[in-house]
Design goal:
By secondary structure, the protein is an alpha+beta fold. It contains 5 helices and 6 strands. InterPro entries: CBS_dom, CBS_dom_sf, Diverse_CBS-Domain.
């Protein structure tokens, strides 16, 4: 029989957050789904962010749009200056509960190949964004 020595876990600031709520970034800019793609790109540039949380007319989370996705829409042949975020939002993207573990969220992000995962509470409010470190 081999003895295994264990050490107690550190409880200081060096511990890794255990839930999504512990690790998420603040929600950042949240925009209305009636905003045009061009204005949304301007908001992203001004805020220095790669994504925006999109809310519906009731203020509930609707989608997360990325700069790359909006640029692809803008560069598409069907684009006009009247295209709104609700026209390009699919609302089917993944999101995480603030109570989910980081391991669960990371697996979901890697499986779905997303770099940012919105954190949404049980009432549909966007609380923040969990992003993979690069």
């Amino acid at each position: 029989m081999t003895l295994l020595q264990t050490y107690p876990r550190a409880t200081g600031a060096d511990t890794v957050p255990r839930t999504v709520a512990d690790a998420m970034d603040a929600a950042g800019p949240q925009v209305w789904d009636g905003m045009t793609v061009e204005v949304a790109l301007s908001v992203m540039a001004a805020a220095g962010t790669r994504h925006l949380l999109v809310c519906d007319e009731d203020g509930q989370y609707a989608d997360l749009v990325t700069r790359d996705r909006l640029r692809a829409v803008r560069d598409g042949s069907a684009y006009t200056d009247r295209v709104r975020l609700r026209d390009v939002a699919d609302g089917t993207g993944p999101f995480a509960s603030p109570l989910a573990t980081l391991a669960e969220a990371e697996r979901a992000m890697r499986y779905r190949r997303v770099a940012a995962l919105p954190v949404v509470d049980e009432d549909g409010n966007a609380l923040g964004v969990l992003a993979l470190s690069r």
